[in-house]
């Protein structure tokens, strides 16, 4: 009996580790930027390339920075969630058009709706590198002092908004 | 007619062939980029290095590293730049830290556990072998069988 108990115990331990491993998403890496100042940027605006949007202009409010692109499939998945959030008016969303073509991005927003206050254009993807973006869509919650408080990797979902992002935004707005 | 064929075969000699141009104008910078890129992970295709990957992000990161090399930044500065943005995961060889101790020590722990298990198993087996006692009759039978076997050609 004892002879089988030890291998069986080991088997259970291995199964336990594998079961936990299966529930983890290897694409979700902890960002070292959470808790640090959001990298500065100063970029042309998508709708008005003559104008510049700078991260300094956005200080003093809690805001979301959403990296997206017209070529990105996950962005379309999360788009209704963003539209819904923008309609609720709970937190301003700023877009970062990441490595995209201007006319395609404009067409995308025209077709599907524009949830953003302002969209900045990061055509070479440099601001994306500063923010540690490795797969759009990614969304950052930035507080009044300009510190990153949360990073969402992959599409936003209603349940993530309700359980994580909106409570955090409310807390940060009261500070 | 034959001369025409020879002439035709010689024709490719006149085509000028060039060596593929290096990725950077400066071969030293390119060597540094290569050395760094095999130590860095592509965040998109996570089991490839920055050198292997042709994901757009990997291309951008190679461009970024190339520019940092051109700015005469040290390897450590370049790696710190990437780690501060992407975390330790960008390194192909994870650093020694409290959180990575198990990762580095784990295989040796498993090896040790296996060695200990082996020692115990061998000891137990040794006991089993010595514990067997045979009677006088069995002993005689063994001797008889062995001597019979020895007599056979």
Protein topology:
The complex is a heterodimer of chains A (175) and B (153).
Chain A: H1 2-23, E1 42-44, E2 52-54, E3 63-68, H2 73-88, E4 93-98, H3 102-112, E5 119-122, H4 126-130, E6 138-142, E7 148-153, H5 158-174
Parallel strand pairs in A: 3-4, 4-5
Antiparallel strand pairs in A: 1-2, 3-6, 6-7
Chain B: H1 2-10, H2 27-37, H3 56-70, H4 75-86, H5 101-131, H6 136-151
Helix pairs in contact in B: 2-3
Tell me about this structure:
The complex is a heterodimer of chains A (175) and B (153). Chain A is an alpha/beta fold. Chain A has a single domain (34-174), classed as Glutaredoxin (3-Layer(aba) Sandwich), CATH 3.40.30.10. Chain A has 5 helices and 7 strands, in the order αβββαβαβαββα. In chain A, the strands form 2 sheets. Chain A has a 5-stranded mixed sheet with strand order 5-4-3-6-7. The mean pLDDT of chain A is 91. Chain B is mostly helical. Chain B folds into 2 domains: 18-90, Orthogonal Bundle (Helicase, Ruva Protein, domain 3); 101-151, no CATH class. In chain B, helix 2 (27-37) crosses helix 3 (56-70). The longest helix of chain B is centred in the last third of the chain and has 31 residues, at 101-131. Chain B is flat and about 90 Å long. The interface between A and B is medium-sized, with 18 and 14 residues.
